[in-house]
UniProtKB/TrEMBL annotation:
<protein>
    <recommendedName>
        <fullName>AIG1-type G domain-containing protein</fullName>
    </recommendedName>
</protein>
<dbReference type="Pfam" id="PF04548">
    <property type="entry name" value="AIG1"/>
</dbReference>
<keyword id="KW-0547">Nucleotide-binding</keyword>
<comment type="similarity">
    <text>Belongs to the TRAFAC class TrmE-Era-EngA-EngB-Septin-like GTPase superfamily. AIG1/Toc34/Toc159-like paraseptin GTPase family. IAN subfamily.</text>
</comment>
<dbReference type="InterPro" id="IPR006703">
    <property type="entry name" value="G_AIG1"/>
</dbReference>
<dbReference type="GO" id="GO:0005525">
    <property type="term" value="F:GTP binding"/>
</dbReference>
<feature type="domain" description="AIG1-type G">
    <location>
        <begin position="14"/>
        <end position="227"/>
    </location>
</feature>
<keyword id="KW-0342">GTP-binding</keyword>
<dbReference type="InterPro" id="IPR045058">
    <property type="entry name" value="GIMA/IAN/Toc"/>
</dbReference>
<dbReference type="InterPro" id="IPR027417">
    <property type="entry name" value="P-loop_NTPase"/>
</dbReference>
Length: 256
């Protein structure tokens, strides 16, 4: 590999890691992606974004390893009752698969510390499973808990570690942590401490590395096997739309 700026030959990285970031808009996908890469590549979309923006990817060479991050669509913002919206989300997911060079070493699911785990979060998880396969959370998912700065402020008062906080969770959050094998990392994306930023990134990459001997990367073959789930998702959206249209007809008849 030739570096054109210096004219020097540079050895290519010995390893590469590809990560897909998923979750609701506003949960910190962009900021966490930037923290992982150590530079600003993604622009935060905010919780009111439509989820219809183009899929972007960025990469960095860190410790002789190429880190590639793909920011997935705002799956949680998809209107599952609108076939066109579902088609658009599935199209964006396919784009993300192609940007990942045919696969990912891990799916990073973004949760936001300090807010309730809502029905919309549960629906987002269900949709992720429908798109990528029922076992994607169990086999490939790592939870990235964003807004670590808020957690740090709370910890100053209660002196509770992030690990203990995770162990104390109940209900749907506990079920999610159990399903993903308690693979979670706290991210403070507002920190200016380079050492702290490196530690949280290294923790994430260490967890991802441990996944590989067990399951290998999530591949295009895995994605193809999940096709029935995506078809069911699309059929369900069409049925819901048909039911709504039929109800409108009934309502119009009743009004006449």
């Amino acid at each position: 590999l030739l570096c054109w700026e210096t004219g020097l030959h540079i050895s290519p990285p010995k390893m590469s890691v590809s990560l897909l970031l998923v979750g609701m808009n506003g949960n910190g996908k962009s900021s966490t992606g930037n923290s992982i890469l150590g530079k600003k590549v993604f622009t935060p979309r905010g919780s009111n974004a439509s989820g219809k923006e183009e899929i972007l990817a960025g990469s960095s060479i860190i410790d002789d390893k190429e880190i590639r991050v793909i920011e997935g669509p705002g799956i949680g913002e998809t209107n599952v009752n609108d076939p066109e919206d579902v088609k658009l989300t599935l199209s964006h997911v396919k784009d993300a698969m192609l940007l990942g060079a045919g696969g990912f070493n891990a799916v990073i699911f973004l949760l936001r510390y300090g807010v309730r785990f809502t029905k919309q979060e549960k629906d987002t998880l269900s949709m992720i499973k429908a798109i990528f396969g029922e076992n994607v959370i169990k086999d490939y998912c790592v939870i990235a808990m964003s807004f670590g700065d808020t957690f740090d402020s709370d910890r100053a008062e209660n002196n509770m570690s992030f690990e203990l906080w995770c162990e104390n969770q109940k209900g749907d959050v506990k079920n999610l942590f159990d399903e993903c094998g308690h693979r979670y990392v706290l991210f403070n994306n507002k920190s200016t401490d380079q050492w702290a930023l490196r530690i949280q990134r290294d923790m994430l990459l260490s967890i991802v590395d441990k996944l590989q001997p067990i399951n290998g990367p999530y591949s295009l073959n895995d994605y193809d096997k999940a096709e029935p789930g995506r078809r069911r998702l699309l059929v369900s959206s069409k049925l819901q739309l048909l039911e709504e249209e039929n109800q409108k007809v009934v309502d119009n008849i009743n009004e006449t």
